[in-house]
C-alpha cells in the first residue's frame, strides 16, 4: 500500500515532515525580508525592493501554513494525560497561526503603497490600516494568542510523554527572536528547528500503531484467530 493510500502513515508523515520544514521556510523568509536585514529605519525599504518582499511574505505565509498539519499531529498524540488542556491549547494554536498567515498580506500593501506614494506617506497609510480595530483584534492579537497556544500545546505534549519538555520553549523563543537579524535569526532558527524538529522526528520514527494508539497486531496465524 502506498503512503497516500495509507491514512495512518500519510497523516503521521505529513505532520512530522511539516514540523521540520516549517522552521526552515521561516528562516529563509526572514533572510529574504529586506527590512529585517536592514534594521533601523525601514520606511521605504519595502517599496524599494518589491521582489524581495514578495518572496519573503509568500514564504512567511507558507511557514505558518505548513505548521498547521504539525499542530494537528501534536493534538492527535495527546491521549489519556492532559487531553482537555491539549484540545484547548491546540485550538488556540491552530486558529491563531491561521491569523498570522493572513497578516503576511500586509507586506504586499506596504510595498505597493510605498511605491505609489511618497514612502513615508505610504507607510503611514499602511500603519493606519493595521491600527484598525478589526485588524488588531481580528488578526494581530489572535495571532500572538496562537503562539501562546503553540507553547501550551508543546507543554501538553510533554505532559503526555510525547515530546521533550524543552521543545515548546525552544519553539516559542526561536519564533520570537528569529526576526532579529542576523544573530537572532541564526539562534532563533536553530531553536525553532530544534524544538519543532525533535517532535517531528519523533512522529516519523514511531510506528503506525503507536501513532494511532492501537495495540500492535500479533504476527503469524495468531492474528487470524478469534
Automatic annotation (TrEMBL):
The chain crosses the membrane at residues 12-32, 59-78, 85-105, 137-158, 165-183. The keyword Membrane applies. Keywords: Membrane, Transmembrane, Transmembrane helix. This is DUF4386 domain-containing protein. It comes from Streptosporangium saharense.
Amino acid at each position: 500500500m502506498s503512503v497516500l493510500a495509507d491514512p495512518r502513515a500519510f497523516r503521521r508523515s505529513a505532520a512530522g515532515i511539516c514540523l521540520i520544514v516549517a522552521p526552515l521556510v521561516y528562516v529563509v523568509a526572514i533572510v529574504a525580508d529586506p527590512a529585517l536585514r536592514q534594521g533601523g529605519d525601514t520606511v521605504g525599504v519595502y517599496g524599494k525592493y518589491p521582489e524581495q518582499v514578495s518572496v519573503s511574505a509568500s514564504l512567511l505565509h507558507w511557514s505558518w501554513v505548513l505548521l498547521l498539519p504539525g499542530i494537528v499531529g501534536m493534538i492527535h498524540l495527546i491521549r489519556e494525560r492532559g487531553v482537555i488542556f491539549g484540545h484547548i491549547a491546540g485550538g488556540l494554536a491552530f486558529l491563531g497561526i491561521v491569523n498570522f498567515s493572513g497578516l503576511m498580506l500586509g507586506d504586499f500593501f506596504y510595498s505597493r503603497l510605498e511605491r505609489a506614494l511618497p514612502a513615508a506617506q505610504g507607510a503611514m497609510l499602511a500603519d493606519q490600516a493595521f491600527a484598525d480595530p478589526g485588524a488588531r483584534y481580528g488578526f494581530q492579537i489572535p495571532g500572538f494568542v496562537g503562539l501562546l497556544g503553540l507553547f501550551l500545546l508543546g507543554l501538553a505534549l510533554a505532559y503526555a510523554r510525547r515530546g521533550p519538555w524543552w521543545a515548546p520553549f525552544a519553539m516559542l523563543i526561536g519564533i520570537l527572536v528569529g526576526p532579529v537579524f542576523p544573530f537572532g535569526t541564526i539562534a532563533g532558527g536553530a531553536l525553532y528547528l530544534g524544538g519543532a524538529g525533535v517532535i517531528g522526528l519523533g512522529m516519523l520514527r514511531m510506528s503506525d500503531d503507536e501513532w494511532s494508539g492501537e495495540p500492535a497486531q500479533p504476527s503469524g496465524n495468531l492474528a487470524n484467530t478469534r
